[in-house]
From TrEMBL:
Described purpose of this protein according to its UniProt entry: Catalyzes the isomerization between 2-isopropylmalate and 3-isopropylmalate, via the formation of 2-isopropylmaleate.
Name the record gives this protein: 3-isopropylmalate dehydratase large subunit
Pathways involved: Amino-acid biosynthesis; L-leucine biosynthesis; L-leucine from 3-methyl-2-oxobutanoate: step 2/4
Domain Aconitase/3-isopropylmalate dehydratase large subunit alpha/beta/alpha per the UniProt entry, residue ranges: 9-466
Native organism taxonomy: Bacteria, Pseudomonadati, Pseudomonadota, Alphaproteobacteria, Sphingomonadales
Keyword Acyltransferase: no
Species, as recorded: Blastomonas aquatica
Cofactor: [4Fe-4S] cluster
Keyword Ribosomal protein in record: no
Subunit composition and interactions: Heterodimer of LeuC and LeuD.
Family: Belongs to the aconitase/IPM isomerase family. LeuC type 1 subfamily.
């Protein structure tokens, strides 16, 4: 009998083009997503070497990081110029390079435009069992559909464009098994924040994580994307969730998904993509779902997580000296004092968006809290930035835009927005933001900005109360 294999091993083995004795392998890449930040030098490299893009049909480009989220077309139908010269240069380069190299391109005014990790699944470009790369660390998100997806650097982007392969060393495998059901009002974002809090920001280093357990069987594809997206914040190379009927139902009929007999053949193959009984992981972690509460970060690493009912930790409580020093620095940056209850921390800004939490379910969850309520007087800005034009359109069809606008939110165009300070959406220095994004690093939302990572419902709760708040008190 064939040896029992993990899902990761199955996908890896199906893509090895050449195996070297030193452990490295050449892997075929099925899907390559391209955005404007990590591609200009890669295309330039091809140009200098006189090379073409090997498989434009397996490549898809979209601008997202630098695009402003204010209107892009004026009343006369003309494109509104990008003010920042660096942003403009990157966006212009992608707009030139994609057609020059024959790469399919969704431009900033296309209704399908959005964050690269939102549009991949949405277009059916992301498929179970495929290897997928992008010059972007949150490529892990696509593992939610059972794709082996990971971020690469610009020189690797050039390599994949030129050859459709990548030289890699096999990662170790890690199982995160979540046992039991999540309590009411606890979201996939709370779960992944809790997991990172438990295993640490380096807990997954060198590993590909597979998330297992009934919680994931019951979780929507949007929720799975939120979880897999943050695998990189646990240090992992990638995150995987085995594809199932929910995955197939999500993908069926999407523009780039297989059709007809190809679809049936694909589904038959995808059904084999699960970890065999008896397969061995290099590392296993068990998480009890009942322990997960609505969560919030207090520091400058995604591992700095506590339940919203908790307090800012005392740096002295960390056994490790370097952790103690890091916590002291974090508290100084965040303007917090040890022992302070998290739900007394006032916020001035709310950001609902990013590739972690900008899909339709995220907007529904936030709108459910905001309906009939208004932002607290202390809220200076509240942005809701749909992950794609199609999410935006769907939300508008459901009337969610009205709920957000009536509550005092700005309803924006799709893009990375305030997830990182690469476009005009920034949090002012020294001010505090409840954010549905994935990174609370120093300066992430702008120099001096203080970020608290939360779920969409928790961001909405913070908006209406003006402080970090337990969403369960508003239901
Ligand atoms: C700009 C890009 C390369 C970067 C990444 O790799 O993730 C960004 O998307 C981020 O989230 O920090
Ligand atoms: S939304 Fe944020 S995390 Fe996602 S790709 Fe954009 S900048 Fe990176």
């Amino acid at each position: 009998m064939a040896q029992a294999q993990t899902l990761y091993e199955k996908i890896w083995n199906a893509h090895v083009v050449d195996q070297r004795d030193d452990g490295t392998a050449i892997i075929f890449i099925d899907r390559h997503l391209v955005h404007e930040v990590t591609s200009p030098q890669a295309f330039e490299g091809l140009r200098m070497a006189g090379r073409k893009v090997r498989r434009p049909d397996l490549t898809l480009a979209v601008p997202d990081h630098n695009v402003p989220t204010t209107p892009r077309i004026d009343a006369q139908g003309n494109r509104i110029p990008i003010a920042d010269p660096e942003s403009r240069a990157q966006l212009d380069a992608l707009e030139r390079n994609a057609p020059a190299f024959g790469v399919p391109y969704i431009d900033a005014t296309d209704p399908r435009q959005g964050i690269v990790h939102v549009i991949g699944p949405e277009q059916g470009f992301t498929l179970p069992g495929c290897t997928m790369v992008c010059g972007d660390s949150h490529t892990a998100a696509h593992g939610a559909l059972g794709a082996l997806a990971f971020g690469i650097g610009t020189s690797e982007v050039e390599h994949v464009l030129a050859t459709q392969t990548l030289q890699l060393k096999r990662s170790k495998s890690m199982e995160i098994r979540v046992e039991g059901d999540l309590p009411p009002s606890v979201s996939p974002k709370d779960l992944i924040l809790h997991i990172i809090g438990q295993i640490g920001a380096a807990g997954g280093t060198g590993h590909v994580i597979e998330y297992r357990g009934e919680v994931f069987d019951q979780m929507s594809i949007e929720g799975r994307l939120t979880v897999a997206n943050m695998s990189i914040e646990a240090g992992a190379r990638a995150g995987l969730i085995a594809p199932d009927d929910a995955t197939f139902a999500y993908l069926k009929g999407r523009p780039m998904a297989p059709k007809g007999a190809d679809w049936d053949a694909a589904v038959a193959y995808w059904r084999t993509l699960k970890t065999d009984d008896g397969a061995v992981f290099d590392k296993s972690v068990v998480i009890k779902a009942a322990d997960v509460a609505p969560s919030v970060t207090w520091g400058t690493s995604p591992e700095d997580v506590v339940p919203i009912t908790g307090n800012v930790p005392d740096p002295q409580s960390f056994a490790d000296a370097s952790k103690r020093a890091a916590a002291e620095k974090s508290l100084a940056y965040m303007g917090l004092t040890a022992g302070m209850p998290l739900n007394e921390v006032a916020v001035e800004h709310i950001f609902i968006g990013s590739c972690t939490n900008s899909r339709i379910e995220d907007l529904r969850a936030a709108a459910a809290i905001l309906k009939g309520r208004h932002n607290a007087p202390g809220i200076k800005s509240a942005l809701v930035v749909p992950g794609s034009g199609l999410v935006k359109r769907q939300a508008e069809a459901e009337g969610l835009d009205r709920i957000f606008i009536d509550a005092g939110f700005e309803w924006r165009e799709p893009g990375c927005s305030a997830c990182l300070g690469m476009n005009p959406d920034k949090v002012p220095s020294g001010e505090r933001c409840a954010s549905t994004s994935n990174r609370n690093f120093v300066g992430r939302q702008g120099p001096g900005a203080r970020t608290h990572l939360v779920s969409p419902a928790m961001a909405a709760a913070a908006a209406v109360t003006g402080r970090l708040s337990d969403v369960r008190t508003l239901i």
